[in-house]
Write a structure and sequence with these properties.
The chain is built from 9 helices and 11 strands. It has 301 residues and is α/β, with parallel strands linked by helices. The mean pLDDT is 96.
Length: 301
């Protein structure tokens, strides 16, 4: 049986993980911050926060943007359950915007019509989560323009999209969104075993993401209610979660990033071969979008 996906683990990956296992710090050591800085460098964002899954990243992203009971979140029906479950975790309501049959991404024309109807009914979404299906970015410029008109936040579900580009800009830069989320599950482009990252450019959002992934605990005295009693002192300022990534996982991801360009280049070459072989058949092959570059997590026909 041909597997849906399989991780590519090198001797160098194993060595990187082994070095962490033989070190004094295997959970919250120096490797997670190093991995986060590398992600920022790669995508061009100001901040990156590594967590134990993309699902966790979506959850705390919703909380950090203020999603709560009674609010609406819209997303694509063509996705994994996490894209909508993150709203249900917050007590919010979920609705869907159908996809463009050529790109398999959220259809911006249908979204525009749906927003017009929702405004009249006073049921506009607080957050919209576009899903970059198979690594092809949604039409983010059109979505950003609509967000300015209808006042909603944007979380890019780029679980398939590490290394992709939109209009020549790296997916994850948050040039057209508030937050972008990546997945590093073993079937994705690179892996940390399990894991995800949320990127953002907003400092206030960054502070919330950072604290929410760590039980809602802070050691920053400026955020505390009482004066610190010593270096050991901390306060819980939010109801947070234990969503942190370990140094073991980050070491694998950090080393995998070295081969990201190679992985994506190979996927694009394979996609071109599929295109060539399927050209004469009555099939619809994945659409190529001008100025966009897909990571080709999947080849969908």
């Amino acid at each position: 049986m041909i597997p849906y996906g399989k991780q590519n683990i090198s001797k160098s990956d194993i060595k990187a993980v082994k070095e962490v296992l033989e070190s004094n710090l295997i959970t919250q050591g120096p490797i997670v911050p190093k991995f986060e800085r590398k992600i920022c460098e790669l995508v061009g964002s100001r901040f990156a926060f590594a967590v134990n899954s993309a699902t966790s990243a979506l959850h705390i992203s919703c909380i950090s943007l203020g999603l709560k009971k009674g609010d609406y979140l819209w997303t694509s029906p063509n996705s994994f359950v996490a894209s909508s479950n993150c709203a249900l975790y917050c007590g919010a309501k979920v609705d869907f915007v159908d996809i463009d049959p050529e790109t398999f991404n959220m259809d911006m024309k249908l979204l525009k019509k749906k927003l017009e109807v929702a405004k009249k009914a006073n049921k506009l979404p607080k957050i919209i989560i576009p899903v970059h299906m198979a690594g092809l970015s949604c039409d983010m410029k059109s979505l950003k323009d609509l967000s300015k008109r209808y006042n909603f936040k944007i979380i890019e579900d780029a679980s398939h999209g590490i290394g992709s580009k939109y209009n020549g800009i790296n997916v994850g830069s948050c040039a057209y969104s508030d937050i972008t989320v990546f997945s590093f599950h073993p079937v994705k482009i690179i892996t940390t075993g399990e894991g995800g990252v949320a990127t953002t450019n907003d400092s206030d959002t960054a502070k919330k993401l950072d604290v929410l992934r760590t039980h809602g605990i802070t050691k920053n005295k400026d955020e505390m209610l009482f004066s610190p009693h010593g270096d050991w002192y901390f306060e819980q300022i939010y109801l947070g979660y234990n969503y942190r990534m370990t140094d073991i996982h980050a070491a694998l991801g950090l080393n995998q990033l070295k081969r990201l360009d190679k992985f994506i280049s190979k996927r694009n070459r394979i996609a071109e071969k599929y295109d060539s072989k399927l050209e004469a058949l009555p099939l619809q092959t994945p659409k190529r979008v001008k100025d966009s570059y897909s990571s080709f997590h999947l080849y969908i026909r």
